[in-house]
């Protein structure tokens, strides 16, 4: 019977091609536009590490200006980050900061290049499930002993070594010799949850090296640096002793108990520091898991949220349109409906017939909507340009495609409910006399 | 087989109450060919709609094959229409975007019949009205008389117990109309009870029993108690 | 005249009226708020930076190796660039307006850290920067070469003079005439004092969304951290040519450095405002799509309604209605339905605008947007229904007698 009704739907489409095409277009445009915005939100606001996002926590210590009542600083000072690392009570922990360096490739054909790098602790790789292509990360000893080791991104390995297994090679970075111990596979979490303060949609770094080198080798630090208090004196040591925040800090806590224990640790650390005259504001330390932190930091731009609302209204208009058109279409076949009733159709079978007809319109609208969504996403990519990493990630994947079709069919059937109800309740007697 | 007692149908709008049928009582027996006449608006079509279970009545009793149908819900009424009643309309009411085969297929679909049986029956029905060779044609490609023959085939394909015809020849020229009438008489002879609404007094005069409706009442409903002759239950489609 | 019968017909077809009216209401809500957002973005993008942007470009030089002397290399580079044909002037600076990246600081009128400070962007540059950016000096005087200070460690500024923007001057000294601000002293974080020696009309801070967008100060100082940012102003029409040659010339001068970020200011501006302009384009697409769909809805339902009433229209014509009266009937019908829509739409528009201002960083919408929106949708509705109405007016009176 389904096939029979589908055939009737196709015939009905052919009978009012203009009306039907208008409906299909309305559904396609409404659903397509909605899916463009949905995909943007889904990509930009998605959970980049769903399987353990609730075990990874961003650490916030309230070292802020006692004269202001603003939020605690997002990042940590050098004093605090090193103190937390020295205590290391969490299952895993890492400080992390960006720096740039000049790499002089061993291949004489390549010019020296500036690389975007990240100083991290060895825990960084297992914490964030960073995939390795070759080799591996480093351990705590390497951190403590300032071993001159690096892990390359897949892309950097491609540029420097043509993609071969470069583990064991020497790399000249700012004139210093580092040994390659690992090469990452593709790894570009979107949003870049582990550093949303320096561009949540920026590309991942080229080279990772033990964080302690940033200070020890005086690399050129990059990224957000905020100081509420003037630096006392000049020079690196004065900066390190200052209240300037520039360090991201993440811990992995496997369960509630560990979370509570870590919060207690932070609070007792704060108390200690208060005794030393720092942390002048009331206790307000923060532990945010990945999703909480991205919400707290408003990673999703205002633009996409406003667009979501507008796209929803666009979809609503398209569906209102569809309701009107379906009503016209169904009431236009009153005669046929009357005949069918005379020939033995009960309301149930009429209902199913028209639900399938609406669903059929929705299906075609959905397929066309996929095209609209694809075009729309290409347009958005073009508008955003290639600078934003997110453009590589904006794409129609299978779940989005299925959602589009399902949304189109469901929305059209919902839009069709009233017209269908009217169609099923047509009084056959009126429409049989004349057609 | 059809027995109406005191059937009333009242249409109410905000302003007026119209008694389309006013205490109509009637008995129709198996194998009868009844014509119904009356001026426009007298309630002929309402009578036919109620007899065909397309409309509910306001009050009264209606027994179809001994079953009281006034209390049946939409689903059961649809089933009865599908199995026991065939309809023929003045304007044929073929579905314009279905070909002849598919048009005749419609009632069988609602009966949920297997495909092979449906095909067999439809082919037979088309043959019986002489249009087998045109089964892939659309209604618009046929003449009026041919269209009405398709409509008759569609009404009979489900082998109904009786046939309700609302001015079946009203849209046809007299020659074609005669052909259609002959077809209906053949069907009646084969055992199907027929109730036909008509404007044509000549046709009414030819029928063994004519009922005249005036202002919602049967004015000369001649009961036909003598009708006991032909009771053999022949297949509806000859 | 015929409003009565049309209104009565509308109450009999409530759903049709509600559907079209709701579409118009939503369309209006989206359209008006989107146009407001677009205008708002355009206004932000149109704010002048104070610079002569069309002829500017910039490039970064990052030195490496132990024998790289940034102070000497920078001086040599700038001297070389300034004598290039087509170049008007060049400067080294720590930041560039519109680029989204730079430094800020807080200044005070008194040397007391417990007092609130006034936030401002700080540009560390040289005595050429006014000419390079082509800023308008409205009071005081430019720096000289002897004002330049060089330092290699982070910490308080060493410069003794500063040129500030009019906006910063007015913020710090609201009651002082602009000429008298010259000569005043400011205190930097850490207590260093610095004297205001000049005032420029306008120089934007580097961050377009910052609240201190118009507050900037320039100090004659170079921070020797191995990273030099050159800003170059060329003769009109010479920019692209100079840009295409600059990297080779600089590398020829000294090759123990890496160049990056070569970009005209036009490109930099486009990058900075990319999200805003993308937003505007997306909104335009949404508006056009919506208006299109709503028009299709109006046309579709009008055509359907007219087809259903062909015989009735023919009868009206047969009874003496002129073509114009038929046309007017359908135009009037649409006008009444659209009126319902725009009244609901006005409420929705204002409601949505309030949601936007309370939840997002958006100013309130000017009052005239809503009535203009109502007017334009009434017009759009009339235009959409014009075609079908003309079709209706062309129905022959003979239709009355023709069977369908």
Set out the fold topology.
The complex is a heterotrimer of chains A (about 425), B (about 240) and C (about 400).
Chain A: H1 2-15, H2 17-44, E1 56-60, E2 76-77, H3 78-87, E3 92-104, E4 113-120, H4 124-127, E5 132-135, H5 140-144, E6 149-152, H6 154-161, E7 170-173, E8 176-184, E9 207-210, H7 212-216, E10 220-222, H8 236-240, E11 245-252, H9 256-275, E12 286-289, H10 290-296, H11 302-332, H12 334-342, H13 347-384, H14 390-393, H15 398-424, H16 428-432
Parallel strand pairs in A: 4-9, 6-8
Antiparallel strand pairs in A: 1-11, 1-12, 2-11, 3-4, 3-7, 3-10, 3-11, 5-8, 6-9, 7-8
Helix pairs in contact in A: 1-2, 1-13, 2-11, 2-13, 2-15, 11-15, 13-15
Chain B: E1 2-12, E2 17-28, E3 33-37, H1 44-51, E4 59-64, E5 67-68, H2 74-84, E6 85-88, H3 100-111, H4 115-128, H5 144-156, E7 162-166, H6 174-189, E8 193-197, H7 201-206, E9 209-214, E10 217-218
Parallel strand pairs in B: 3-8, 3-9, 6-7, 7-8
Antiparallel strand pairs in B: 1-2, 1-4, 4-5, 9-10
Helix pairs in contact in B: 3-4, 3-5, 4-5, 5-6
Chain C: H1 3-12, H2 14-46, E1 56-63, H3 70-82, E2 87-92, E3 103-107, E4 118-125, H4 129-133, E5 137-140, E6 149-151, E7 161-165, H5 166-172, H6 178-181, E8 185-187, E9 193-200, E10 216-223, E11 227-234, H7 239-253, E12 257-264, H8 265-272, H9 274-308, H10 310-318, H11 323-359, H12 369-393
Parallel strand pairs in C: 4-10, 6-10, 7-9
Antiparallel strand pairs in C: 1-11, 1-12, 2-11, 3-4, 5-9, 7-10, 8-9
Helix pairs in contact in C: 1-11, 2-9, 2-11, 2-12, 9-12, 11-12
Molecular structure report:
The complex is a heterotrimer of chains A (435), B (238) and C (404). By secondary structure, chain A is of the alpha+beta class. Chain A has 16 helices and 12 strands. Chain A has helices spanning 2-15, 17-44, 78-87, 124-127, 140-144, 154-161, 212-216, 236-240, 256-275, 290-296, 302-332, 334-342, 347-384, 390-393, 398-424, 428-432; strands at residues 56-60, 76-77, 92-104, 113-120, 132-135, 149-152, 170-173, 176-184, 207-210, 220-222, 245-252, 286-289. The relative contact order of chain A is 0.19. Chain B is an alpha/beta fold. Chain B has helices at residues 44-51, 74-84, 100-111, 115-128, 144-156, 174-189, 201-206, and strands spanning 2-12, 17-28, 33-37, 59-64, 67-68, 85-88, 162-166, 193-197, 209-214, 217-218. In chain B, the strands form 2 sheets. In chain B, strands 6-7-8-3-9-10 form a 6-stranded mixed beta sheet, with helices on both faces. Chain B has a 4-stranded antiparallel beta sheet with strand order 2-1-4-5, with helices on one face. In chain B, helix 3 crosses helix 4 (115-128). In chain C, strands 3, 4, 5, 6, 7, 8, 9 and 10 form an 8-stranded mixed beta sheet that branches. A 4-stranded antiparallel beta sheet of chain C has the order 2-11-1-12. The model of chain C has no long low-confidence stretch (mean pLDDT 90). By secondary structure, chain C is α+β, with helices and mostly antiparallel strands. Chain C starts with a helix and ends in an 11-residue tail after the last helix. Chain C is built from 12 helices and 12 strands. The longest helix of chain C has 37 residues, at 323-359.
